[in-house]
Amino acid sequence: MIKNILVTGYRAHELGIYNQKHPGIPYIRQAIANRLIPLAEEGLEWIITPGQYGVDLWACEAVIDLKLQYPDLQLAVITAYSNQEETWKEERQAYYERVLKHVDYYGAVSHQPYAGTWQFRARDELLLRKTDGILLVYDEEAGAGSPRFIKEQARRKSERDGYVCLSISSEDIQSLVSEAAYDSMEPVSE
Q: What is the CA radius of gyration of the chain?
């Protein structure tokens, strides 16, 4: 049983998303929620993200919504270093602050500003150590992007320790888009 899960994936720019109005975001959030619901029903307690702008924060939004149905769910954002958002555009900083108001725990692995990639490695090691599994939004066929690093670490941990690796592919998200399009079609009258 998964009690604590790491949810992460692509940064927004890696998906060609540059603002919160992008029509794909609700489908990404829904795909995440769809994967978390069965885990919540089986006793999931904590959802933890690194809080990067993209899948991490959309996962937070999905969890915030799920907490209405599953009030015992807890949400944590654990960043690699303090003030990760300080170089973000003002609109993204405001969005980040709104999301953080709803998390149950916020912390940074390194309590200093960005100093090097070692901070990301330390964060990933901590997140993998503190969770029973990962839900990764990642396209295996593309094979590129920031999630591939954590995916490799999770795969090794899975082989060693039975760590659970779950994923959401672009096909999973596209099927939600197609389903929504089908549902909104007008019935054909004869």
A: 17
Quote the pTM value. 0.93
Alpha helices in the chain (DSSP H): 25-41, 55-66, 90-100, 118-130, 147-161, 170-183
Q: How far apart are CA 80 and CA 7, in angstroms?
A: 15
The pLDDT, as a whole number, for residue 144 is: 76
Residue 11: strand pairing partners? 54
Domains in the chain and their CATH numbers? 4-182 (3.40.50.450)
What residues contact 53, with CB distance under 8 A and at least 6 apart? 11, 12, 85, 88, 92, 95, 96
**Whole-Å CA distances, 83 to 1, 13, 72, 135:** 34, 20, 28, 25
